[in-house]
Design brief:
The protein is of the alpha+beta class. The chain is built from 9 helices and 7 strands. It starts with 9 loop residues before the first helix and ends with a helix. It is 40% helix and 14% strand.
Length: 251
Amino acid sequence: MKKRPAKISKTEWQARCELAALYRLIAWYCMTDLIDTHISLRVPGEPEHFLINRYGVTFDQMKASDLVKIDHEGNIVEKYDQGKMVNVAGFVIHSALHHARDNIHCVIHTHTADGVAVSAQEKGLLPLSQHALKFYNNIAYHEYEGIAFSTDERERLVQDMGNYRCMILRNHGLLATGNSVARAFHEIYFLERACQIQIKAMSSAELHTPSKEVCEYTVKQFESDAAEPIIQAAWHAALSLIRDQRKDYCS
């Protein structure tokens, strides 16, 4: 593993390594879109700053040193990050949520085929699977306004997001947040799987859905305190898939 650069604090470097690992896991689970989409992480102890990817690096090759520390206005904060290009749409979407809610530390945005397909369906995510019931009456929607280059859209994104963790961006893709990398990863994994299942199920002539009572009961199960240890265990299990890459991504 490459030694931490002296100019970067220990806590920031640890955050960079964790975020780089998350980028690689999103690639592992086939949730990438060439060099587009983005993941961000608030810098520990620096509420006005967050890390985001250097635009142009594929997710499967992301390293801690590829990440860029920016503020909520999109300015690159440190000299050691100067010269790195940042996706403007990524800044607009992520800065809106990081700035509006201090309990959002990690934001993941994807453009998967199944996620976009569900975002284009009039009724959105349907209660067709256990994965989907995690989001039963527990997900936000935001109308498509074109490529997110305008900072004016941030206010509407925040308003539509409310207090939910996840959002379906209409005709665009998926968005998941969390108070940790582990939580955000868990949210996007379940949301993506729910969309994959829905698209496959739609090929059937008839669909069966659980009762309203069961749907409401299941979402409460997902939101119980007992879920947190499972979320952490799932994150560490996922990290084991790329354990042999740690020396590379943490550099």
